[in-house]
Give the backbone structure.
Amino acid sequence: MNANTKALTRRAGPLPGLPDSQDGSALAVVIILALVSAVMVAAFMGMTLTEHIIVNSNSDSIAAFHVAEAGLETGARLLYEDMINTPQGYEPSWRDGRFYLDSYDGGYLAEDGVTYYPTFRVLAGPVSFADGTYTIEMANIAGLDDAIWVRSTGTVRGKTRAVLSKYRIKNLNPWNNAIFAGAGAAGRTINGCVDIRGSVHILGEDTFHGTVMEMSGSAYIGNNYIGLPLTLASRIPMIAEMVDGRLFETLDTEVRVRYGQVSISGSADIGEDGTTEIVYDAQIGEAKMRVDGTYVTDGWTGNKGASAVYSDNGTDEPYDLPVDTFDGFPKLSDPYEGYDSYTDYLRDHGLVISDPAALAQLADITRSSSFSYSNEYGSISADGNGNLTVSGVIVIEGDLGIGKDNSGMMYYQGSACVLATGNVTVENDLIVRAGEMFPTMSILGVMTPNTILFDRAQLYVQGIFYAETQITSTKQTIVTGTFFSDYFDMGTNVPNIFQVPSVLYHLPQGMFGSFNVFSLRRDCFREVDLGATE
């Protein structure tokens, strides 16, 4: 290597005693990185703090939603208590402006009776719950006496959310049906052109899960009064419900079977496909065609089965009451208020007829019958022209037979329950007098521990009938009222029964089975902005 090359080589290295110029660049980079790191750490801490605040805020919002839900459940319980604690003699209603809440604030809460539709009024609150509070409000629904809006507002650390539900309540007392049965249908057959308008409730037996009701031919369970003769329609209250500003005729028909299947074959149906139908022979212009609900745990059978059921809730819902709601089929022989049986209770609180001559008259009442029996508990009389007058509690220690001579229409007036310890036969028309309304003005309830037989064609009957053993209506009888029996037999010759919902609140004094069985149902649920009314 020559001298020039050596010189160039030396010149390429650092000068002795001077710092390397790259050391300054490294220091600058370190400082910049430190500053960037500091900024990033600060930003991260800010983001973490913001995220923490957001998380807490979301957590409080979620908590407020759950608190609102808890308030909604409390509101449902309070409304249920209002119904079950309504004093005897008052029709249970959320519209009456009063609340009978035994467990609320230790006693009775009375509102001032001011109408509160369509604005919400406070039912309870603010009530402390978990880390927040809820306030429960409610509002009536136009046209519905058995439904109500409930809004619950939950608040947790300044976060507020509100939820809204519509609740409906129904009294499932046996008399709030067209047919209430224990074991079910004798022979398990409803065939021919049998027409049942109104609810059917069958308890069945927990040891049997086969067919308890068999519908064949053109048998039908419906939700309206289409086809009801004017003679009967003019003597019962209208049935109507406002839906979307339109008035519909509806019986709120539901079918319940606790144990056992429902068989549907032929052209039989429960409800009809479609929404409404024009009704020409009733008092309302449109009628609901689908039934409101079916609740059959063991399901459907027959060659049509569930395909012939047209119900608002489909066909898959199970029986919706606790199985112990009815501890067996209610019987007159059951103990009651310190008595060995309900029959004994009625004997001690009613007009008891046991004279042989009187029993002979009552076993064969005709249009020409003339008699009068009474005491401080009850009375029954006939004027010889086909007019009966009844009141209170009447116990007949034998059979009751009405119209065996088939001599024409018989009429009654008054409110009474009649217990016949023998059998009951109805072979003549028996309806309330002209100018009377069934059941609001006149109602006859007939009871027996044995059987009731409707045994003549083309009968018109208005009343409610309890038979501990069996009710048979095999011919072209048209009944407005209720059949309540362990077994029922609707035969093959076009019998009809039309439920009258107002029966439940006009039961005669002393009538068996006058207890409440309320079922509360939530129809809808959604979150709402505060200020929403529905």
Observations:
- Residues 22-84 form the longest helix (63 residues).
